[in-house]
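Q: Convert this sequence to structure tokens.
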Amino acid sequence: MGVRILPSADVDERAVIGDGTTVWHLAQVREDAVLGRDCIIGRGAYVGPAVRIGDGVKLQNHALVYEPAVLEDGVFIGPAAVLTNDLYPRSVDVDGKVKRSDDWDALGVTVREGASVGARAVLVAGVTIGRWALVAAGAVVARDVPDFALVVGNPARRIRWVGRAGVPLKEEAGGLWRCPETGEEYTERDGRLALAFR
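A:
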């Protein structure tokens, strides 16, 4: 199928772009970034140096993914979402000198398989978003999000569970949850949710 890079995109020659991936207008993919197969990098999106992106990932317009973030397969990053990498950012050091890359340690965000991050959400450096979790639009995530959690607000907090289809689950007896769309069943134990296998 090949790689499609629009002429106005800025893709470093040291980046690795998987087959079937499209990089849209004005997007930037920096050196040593690795993008999997069948990804969509939207208009004006930014992928930092050495960021790792799996297969089937969508970065919507103007999403910013700073190094050394890791996005696993099937991740969705909404428009203008920001994945940060510095807990204590400063432009200059205490002597007034402009800080350079060697003056601090980048701390990346990890987004696990199938998770989605809504428009204009902010993920603070070092957090992990669990598998198939859903971060609501505008949320500010400052701590890890468990698998299948729906989190909202600032600071983000869990309000529901969602299944792999992304819709809220319905609670049934005995710690069992069911997806109204797919019928999949999930079990809850100690504040964690897992897909039930029968």
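The chain has two domains: 4-162, 163-198.
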